[in-house]
Amino acid sequence: MPKCLLLLPNLLRSSVLRGLNLCIHSRIHSLQSCSSPSPHNRGDDEDEPSVPVEIFKSGTQSGSYKLGDSTFYSLIENYAVSCDFRSLERVLDQMKRERRVFVERNFIVMFKAYGKAHLPEKALGLFHRMGNEFRCRQTVKSFNCVLNVIVQEGLFTRALEFYSDVIATKSLNIHPNVLTFNLVIKALCKLGSVDKAIERFREMPLNNCVPDTYTYCTLMDGLCKESRIDDAISLLDEMQIEGCFANPITFNVLINALCKKGDLVRAAKLVDNMYLKGCVPNEATYNVLVHGLCLKGKLNKAVSLLGQMVSNKCVPNDITYGTLINGFVKQGRSVDGAHVLSSMQERGHVGNEHIYSSLISGLFKEGKSELAMQLWREMEEKGCQPNAVVFSALIDGLCRAGKPDDAREVLFEMKSKGYAPNSFTYSSLMKGYFDKGESHKAVLVWKEMEDNNCNHNKVCYSILVDGLCKQGKLMEALMVQKQALSRGIKLDVVAYSSMIHGFCKAHSVEQGMKLFQQMLCQESESQPDVITYNILLDALCMQNSIPRAISLLNIMLDRGCDPDLITCNIFLRTLREKVNPPQDGREFLDELVVRLVRRHRIKGASNIIEMMLRKYLLPKGSTWAIVVQELCKPRNTRKAINECWSKLYC
């Protein structure tokens, strides 16, 4: 230090030193802005130091103050913000060589930087280096920061291991606080270990920690995801008794769970409870309720809820409108959904691509192709650029409307705008050509997928097999099926049923039965359904193979597939035309009802009884008794009562 500085009084000397540091700081910033390379490019230049050498000319020690410490701290902060970890290590090494003082807040800045860069293991390593290498004592602050980085990365098991190791290390002397417990409870809930999370929750008072709103919210969310809604609501009561006031987020967790379960009555009561507690519902609350009403098909009530939102000074947002429009589309009321879109636009909201794709797809499915195309043009006029999802929806819709050539033109436009068609896009086009009877064009689309490196998935194979079978090209369909199996792709029930139907029509029932046996060995999506069974039952009965048909019916019942009206008609026709003497089928259907009731499949039994009554084939008195006894069981009675209450109050 210059001798002139030593002659100054202490206070003045400290001011001068601080001024020197400020000059150094400004020098750092100018060097960084003018000469330092971009953080993204620094890795390419190993030899160029990121930290200018001149700023490390350390001053002499003056009392307890060391010239330049704050300069290093500023460097750490700057490099952490830009995620320049190589330069950070150089600063740390320089500080070690000069025996600078390390403070915890600088490490916390670096931990956050590692979290931002998704490098949790680096944060862990630095935490363990703090004490041994840098002589900086870890406290619960740095511990929580690292724990949060690991939890945010979704490494919940790793977070719990880190927590256990640190708490068990007595030399660290770190005691968990509320934030620590909140992070541990979150990790346990995410892993599905809700009971263990509750144990940690009960340990909090023993550690002089009072649970906060976040603690309760996390536990309630974990309980709801485990379908333990009653326990979560009990926790809400406990929370209020303990003097921890619930906020809208707390109530929203419970309301969302109840709406997903379909229990709108209790959800509405919780909203009333919110008002009683002085907690005003927010946009998220109303969005959850609208979603719940849409799931239950109560769209008119969902629309009326919008008015209630506005009266409570909650403005419906894009999520509200999008949920409502999607609900109308799913209920086959896309025109009403389009009216909601118009109302939304009048209120200053612009429909996004998801809303347009949903509406366009729904209108085409309902046969309103002109309105769908009008919406497409309107979308472009309003400056909402279609994405791959909207293009795919339009292509699928045009194919449903019997216009695959127009759909191919849209495909060319889609490619020209830089959007790559996916398997769904090509599948729609293939199906459109098959439905129009132009199988050669469908096969060309299949080959085009290969040329564009678009993988053939299960749906593509199923559409190809189904289309070939409907064209009578059974051998080609079998070759495609074998190719799919060789690639590890198992066809769905539609493709198998199409092949079975094709072989049965060609009087090759045995080949159809072989495919049926293959289905029994497949996954759930390839398991035979009632349509598959009906195809084979009809073919066997037409061949007078009634014992084999009865055996197949037994397999159908044993595998949990209920007969439908077509199944019953097949056997009624057979008993009337193929059996000597002819039978009316009353006894056969009566026995079928009894077998279904004994398997507790009341819905299937009820459908057959309804058919019997329409054909004046009255069931036996004993059969009626069995059905009524099953219907009047407590669980069935309670279910019926709950459905009635739900219809009355929702």
TrEMBL record:
Keyword flag Repeat: yes
Pfam families according to UniProt: PPR, PPR_1, PPR_2
PROSITE patterns documented for this protein: PPR (PS51375)
Keywords: Repeat
InterPro entries referenced in this protein's UniProt entry, alphabetically: PPR_P_subfamily, PPR_rpt, TPR-like_helical_dom_sf
PPR repeat ranges per the UniProt record: 177-211, 212-246, 247-281, 282-316, 317-351, 352-386, 387-421, 422-456, 457-491, 492-526, 529-563
Chain positions covered by the region annotation Disordered: 32-51
Matches recorded under Gene3D superfamilies: Tetratricopeptide repeat domain
Protein family according to the UniProt entry: Belongs to the PPR family. P subfamily.
NCBIfam families the record matches: PPR
Protein name: Pentatricopeptide repeat-containing protein
Organism lineage string: Eukaryota, Viridiplantae, Streptophyta, Embryophyta, Tracheophyta
